[in-house]
Amino acid sequence: MIDKKLLKNLEQCLTDIVPADEHFGIDEMRGLFFAQMISPDKGNPLDWVAALFYGERPKLSEEQVSGLNRTAEAVYDAYHALFVANKLHFPFDFDRLDAELAESVYAWCQGFYIGLSINELFWLGKKGEKYHNKEIEAVRNSAKLFTGLVTKDFSDFDKVKIAELKTFIIKQGEEPTDDIIAATLFPNIPVAVQTLQIYGTKMMSAPVQKAPLPPAHKIGRNDPCYCGSGKKYKKCCGGI
Questions:
Q1: I want to staple 123 with a disulfide (CB 3.0 to 4.6 A). Which of 64, 65, 143, 153 is the partner?
Q2: Mapping DSSP to helix (H, G, I), strand (E, B) and coil, where does residue 44 land?
Q3: What is the C-alpha separation between 178 and 168, in angstroms, rounded?
Q4: Overall pTM > 0.85
Q5: Which of 144, 147, 124, 116 is nearest to 41 (CA)?
Q6: What is d(CA 216, CA 221) in angstroms, rounded to the nearest whole number?
Q7: In contact, 88 and 33? CB cutoff 8 Å
């Protein structure tokens, strides 16, 4: 568990800079830092700082920058310690879900969604991307779940699944509005988080593919390239 004092210190630091409604609350911070931990590419630190202000980083004095960096790094280090110890888990028990807890979960999802958005290409892929395996499809659908929950826009979600969901909602005697769709998908949050966490962690431990070193002997411009591409050397690495 994260020491709540660390989060409260960061929240107070933000409140000293802008009004409370212009920066993340504690639950949103928790979601943001969770997303940061499971993302292989941590992105530009300035993007993460801006995210704490809903993407609009205000002009800060040197003293404010120093205080913000210090308190944010303390929270980051605490989350990183949990991640390294394999103790970073989705922090809500859905078996005890009530209105108050659901509100906290939704705020957490907002922060988590923004964290995913900072690494949008990694988590959501390119628009119109064709999934080459079931794992990637599950990751993309899990990430898009949070896009839909937060923005209430399911246009980029799996169209077959949304059609099935709408049919189910209609059979329950309700109109399949975006809000109702979001509420129906809400119980899938823990599984979606787990799917993303497993994939992100896996990608962090994957070996980095390194280009082969050039051969020690001289290679002719018309010889096959040493990188194994099948092209002539002059049309491949020799043309760089």
A1: 143
A2: coil
A3: 14
A4: no
A5: 116
A6: 15
A7: no
Name residue 106's amino acid: Y
Handedness of CA 87, 201, 191, 146 (dihedral sign): positive
List % helix, strand, coil for the chain (3-state, nearest 5): 65, 0, 35
Nearest to 139 by CA among 73, 81, 95, 203: 203
C-alpha distances (whole Å) from 86 to each of 2, 39, 80, 109, 155 are: 14, 15, 10, 21, 35
Q: Which runs of E-coded beta strand occur in the chain?
A: none
Residue 223 φ then ψ, to 5°? -75, 160
Q: Which tens digit of pLDDT belongs to each residue from 76-95? A: 999 999 999 999 999 999 99
**Token pair listed for 138:** 């599950």
Residue pLDDT, tens place only, 143-181? 999 999 999 998 888 888 899 999 999 999 999 999 999
